[in-house]
Amino acid sequence: MAPSGTVQPLPRISGQIIINELIRNMELGRLELGYSILVPCIFSVYLHPDDYVRVTSVQDLIEEDAKRALTARLAEWNAKAGLLRRNAARKTYRTAKNGWWIGLFADSESTVPPGDVEIHSELNDIAQPGYRGTKTTLIDREPSVTSARVVRDREHTRLRSGPVFAEIRYQDDSGRQTFLVTQNEVSIGRGGEDLWVDLALYTTADEISREHLRLRRDPGNGEFKITDLSRNGTWLNGRRIAGNVEVSMPERAEISLAETLSLAFEVRHD
Q: Structurally, what CATH architecture does the domain formed by 15-156 represent?
């Protein structure tokens, strides 16, 4: 026990702690597929501002060592998988893209304590529908940095290739978001580990179905149509549409899911 009147030093973060926690986050964030197992490769690391100042001068070295450690752990898992008997099912551990992306940030929301680290990870640059990412902390506490903050901090890592047909603006529990429609069919809802949706809404509202609605674009004329797939209904510009029936959409529309969450839809012509 420290003598009375002495000041206990604050816990301090180290590069090795950050690397260890990145490996733990990768282990917890594995997603098993039919023939392989995906692991996160995009990591946003949040530190108390004082800790961030301490490590920012060697941030490049920490990231370099961390990438080597993640690659080594991936190789270790695959080596163990190779020891399985010849006729046994073997799944390869892999990432969805080549290489790793690691970003260190000072937590400006005053939620990460000194000596702690909060890590948010994703499987790919573009968030995977139905996969909510993995969030871990060193100290036993709930992750507190918002999903909207994570997206904002690593916005430049997002991949945007090909034409954008429309955009959907909305606000859910993760904050204000914009979804760019780059495919001819988009499924929308709460999603889940066993249900893939293109636009996964972060909400606890049970009125919104896991797959609530679907948008479909006609490649010939660019027209969009909407289909309600939900239990509690979908409204298009204030009018409820029939379930399981395709309805034509105007170029600008407000879509209400169970009168709980609204999406602002707009066709893009650029």
A: 2-Layer Sandwich (3.30)
Q: Degrees (nearest 5) of the Cα angle 104, 173, 257?
A: 140
pLDDT tens track for 116-143: 999 999 888 765 555 567 899 999 888 8
CATH of domain 166-267: 2.60.200.20
Q: Domain-by-domain residue ranges, the chain?
A: 15-156, 166-267
> Quick one: pLDDT band at residue 172, thresholds 50, 70, 90?
confident
Which of 2-11, 82-91, 134-143, 228-237 is predicted least confidently? 2-11
